[in-house]
Amino acid sequence: MGIAISAAQVDPRVVSFLEKPRQMLINGRWVDSVSGKTFSTFDPSTGEVLAQVAEGDREDIDLAVKAARKAFDDGPWRRLTPSERGRLVWKLADLLEQHLEEFAYLESLDNGKPLTVARAADVPLAVDLFRYMAGWATKLEGHTIPISVPYTPGAKYLSYTLREPVGVVGQIIPWNFPLLMAAWKLGPALATGCTVVLKPAEQTPLSALLLGELILEAGFPEGVVNVVPGFGETAGAALAAHLDVDKVAFTGSTEVGKLIVHAAAGNLKKVSLELGGKSPNVIFKDADIETAIAGATSAIFFNHGQCCCAGSRLYVEKPIFDKVVDGIAERAQKIKVGPGLDAATDMGPLVSEEQLNRVCGYLASGAAEGAKALAGGKKHGDKGYFVEPTVLVNTREDMKVVQEEIFGPVVAAMPFEKPEDIVPRANDNVYGLAAGVWTNDINKAHRMAEHLRAGTVWINCYNIFDAALPFGGYKQSGWGREMGRDVLDLYTQTKAVCTRLG
Length: 502
Ligand code: NAI
Ligand code: MG
Known about the structure:
It is a single chain. Helix content is 39%, strand content 21%. It is of the alpha/beta class. The longest helix is centred in the N-terminal third of the chain and has 22 residues, at 115-136. Helix 3 (82-98) crosses helix 7 (206-218). Helix 6 (178-192) links the parallel strand 6 (168-172) and strand 7.
């Protein structure tokens, strides 16, 4: 064990979870990888090893897919009533809620986010998602459809549709909200009756493995959920390409999203993608300025900017530009950066050294292209992967820091003069995940909502998530919508049944 934290600081159940090397969940059992290999997961506030985890690769994925296939084709899972399925998902939510503290600690240690945030947001949102999806298990209805069939005059038909689970689903998730992303993926898959092979991110495999324990405790039949930790290029790629997987659901970079699409072509499996963003956040001069300053600050700095929907391109109407950016910079300077377990911490480290280097590379590129940091602008401290909350001004649309996803606590602010210019500027990006609008003019607000090319538009708020609200991207931010009733379309397929009546 390399746990670098004092046991006194951490829930004792978490300490014992971290002590043993964590295995993978295949066919209802905890097993080592076929190769026997393990990999380390790190505490990003120190860079020290947190735990050892079984390293899945092609052969482990193959075993997991076989288990999921069997559970889907012949297992008791398909014979459960919708009500029984819904109750299992609800039970998983109850168990998760009972173990909230352990999950919050684990999430904070593995990802770096403040414990207070994991407690208040990540775990409760995951609980709520499972409860919301549990309710859908009994409401997956088809239709009866009157038909005319011109070439069989006089014949009568009874036609209806069945809504069936899509089958074995491969789910590949990122590290920014490890537990919550697992819940977004598992909830609808289980509610609709699919079976799953879940591959958590190599940076943050622990909460998905603890969730695996609760899945067994809840009583899901063996093979319904398999959890195979491992790296993207090996385990992830094998899952995306596997010929016996009916659908792949991916959240992560747009670059890897494109690889997933190629990998899926072999058996034309269904694909859903939740990818990157560079979301515009637009503040009009008629907004409630203090509310907008606070909102724009949390829009970029929540989760250390490691949100696909982070409000990273800030557009402020010229007369209030200085006041707004000064206000955000002042707040940024007051953000207490530190380890996630420290109760005083507002913002933890980035998840990994790779992300630290990536974000620092963007800071250097911004400076080289003439951007000026009103707050922050560099790495914080000399241990762990911390970056200062950064507010960049003197930025232009052609700069890399304005065009590309940074995925760190860095906002690029730009003024705009004419309200009619702002829509094309806001839409001038390959991504289209989310957008924010701050104004007290209700007509302007909803006209903006209509014209912004984004899957989510927040008006006078930002980063508001709910299990009932669909989330996903326009343009290169992805395919399909997660959460809400929309996600059910991704996990079901329609069968038309046509009967000729005598
Ligand atoms: P990534 O897209 O490489 O990783 C996300 C997941 O995909 C992980 O589980 C990883 O193991 C898996 N993966 C990687 N390569 C794969 C492959 N060839 N086939 C199948 N699965 C594969 O993201 P990474 O490298 O961790 O972060 C890079 C950038 O991606 C970030 O800076 C950020 O811009 C973006 N990103 C976006 C996220 C989002 O929520 N939309 C989440 C994480 C990263
Ligand atoms: Mg990657």
